Amino acid sequence: MITFKIGGVHPHDNKIAKTAAIDPLAPPAKVAISMAQHLGAPATPVVAKGDKVLVGQVIGEPAGFISGFVHSSVSGTVAAVEPRADIAGNMVPHVVIDVEGDEWDPAIDRSETIVRDITASREDILARIKAAGIVGMGGATFPTHVKLNPPEGKKAEFLIINGAECEPYVTADDRLMREKPDGIVIGAAIMAKVLGGCKCYICIEENKPEAIKAVQGACSPFPDIKVLTLKKKYPQGGEKQLIDAVTGRQVPSGALPIDTGCVVQNVATAFAVYEAIQKNKPLFERAMTVTGQCLDNPRNFMVRLGTPLSYVLEAAGGAPESAAKFISGGPMMGKAIANIDATTQKGSSCLLLLTEEQTRRKSEGNCIRCGKCTDACPMGLEPWLLNKLSRAGGRMDELEENKIFDCIECGCCLYTCPANIPLLDVIRVNKAEVMKIIRGRAKK
Amino acid sequence: MDSTILTTIAILTIIGIVVAVVLYFVAQKFKVEEDERIDKVEACLPGANCGGCGSAGCRDFAQRVVAAPEFGSLFCPVGGNEVMQKVAQVLGREAVAQKKMVAVVRCNGTCENRPKINDYDGYASCKVKAALYSGDTGCRYGCLGCGDCVAACKFDAIRMNPETGLPEVDVTKCTGCGSCAAACPRGIIELRTTGPKDRMVVVLCNSKDKGAVARKACKAACIGCAKCQKVCPFEAIKVENNLAYIDFNVCKLCTKCVSECPTGAIHKFNFPEKPAAPAAAPAAPVEKAAPAAVKAEVKAKEETV
After folding, report:
1. Mind listing the domains of chain B with CATH numbers?
2. ipTM field
3. How far is A314 from chain B (nearest CA, A)?
4. Which residues does chain B have within 8 Å of residue A333's beta carbon, measured at their own beta carbons?
């Protein structure tokens, strides 16, 4: 069994929702679809109030190179195109649709049959992935067609399909791998074809034996695709960590994975690619986990994008009294939800409910230079030093020298710190500032 | 024994003299010519090294002042006109008087006016909080209340009021250096001049949301109704992005806008308290027992006027 070399932590995996099959969740009475579901510029809405839309119809067009298409997840009438608060309370343009029935775009193949033959050409596939609005569904939401189209002179040797799902609690990818292994494998084969026939590995952590078995079974018609079992360790699903685990190559500071000949895609992205190419279905729904010890029935749902989180929570039995903090994503990298009426997006993998006891912050102590954070950091940084420099009035030049921009914000330092120092909170803000300075310099 | 001590003393003395002579010549040879006025100017400055003047510290400011032919925009906001007068004397120039600047916190989102809609339990820093989300109240523009401005102030002029959860500026201590304004991630703190006796009329709101949204989040929000703009006889008020702004260079402190504002977002500072309004008179009979005291108070007020 393989894993990455530097750092990492071992939080309890708490995959309590892994026995719950993915249930399709009926669309709510009203959806609000965000135009900023991907990294980069928010999409430009192309519908107006009063327009009738079908499931799968384009409602937003990309507004730049790093941007993406957005499709309607329901059929009905557009009620408004307006800024609304996202989970962090920031105003983002949304298209609000009143749901009427469930009428799909007739071009979408809704049958259950598995289509194995990849007939489309490379250019055709890339164009269709772009048109289907597919982005990295592991959480970073980077447009997939950009990642699958390496710049001139760079060749992908390895396509790594990320099924690590190293975040505790989250089981959406696990369930998807168990229930739709064929789609994932065919999606991987399609992406390998786009990249010009490279080696393809589907990487799954050891705590998902059923998923490993299911995907291995689905791989049999594809000799170029192999399943690798990974040792359980967080943050295994990080792009750079996964490349290290599979190929032993280190992505240098400031470089991209493609510089080491690797492209990493999530399993959910692979499945979305399969649906887009073989079934002509754009990305408008995704698997999402609703979990937490305080819930009686942790669930996995197939939710339409734009469904309010409060509606998803209601479907899982509603929020119990003891739930104190709602988190979008896993407990390590997820974000606390300030607005439960915000809606699901392409990157929403999990809605996690934690109790007061689980989320209470312990009071901060003094750093005794024990070095635990340095040991845990998977990027080989020194979090204690970055914290110290950040707090000393933001010594940006020294922060840059100490590679603060390499931080992947995985939270291992914060998790392991015995003095409960909010290392990541401080580092994250100053990382953004250093990045701003670097970008400003590059423009000059 | 005696000779050992004497020899030691003699050797050390000789070494001392030789080194002193060498050092004297080295000092002469490598002497750095520096304008002695720099030291004199620096001695006049407050020495807080706050950076409010835009220089890297008081020494840097002194160097720049001496090097520049005129004061121009070089001004020590902390020392004010008094210090600049002294500096002018040292340099034999004419001092350029500037108005005193003070910081105002343009938010009145007290706990009462602006109820919390969620709890923030992260690191207590406005900068961190602002980067994470829109804040623990409904207002996306208001004070975050973690006190980055208080930590930035080198003159103890800004303090957190635990009752309102908002920072308060002590105008007498504030030097207008601008450290707090730079520290505020929401840009709430404004540097401005004051009228006579530190009087000011300020819109205590920074919300650029539409009226209904702003009002829902905070009772004391500016809703951009532009009533103040209409009532102002001096055209000092402009409403942009649903937010009124009073140009302090134009404002004549007539305070007409203060009573006109429907949400009470416009505040006046350091104006004398008005004597009891006539509308309150009918309620007075209870206090009739002590008319002498009331009279004395009125008299005292007349005298001060």
Report:
1. 36-91 (1.10.15), 101-269 (3.30.70.20)
2. 0.86
3. 20
4. none
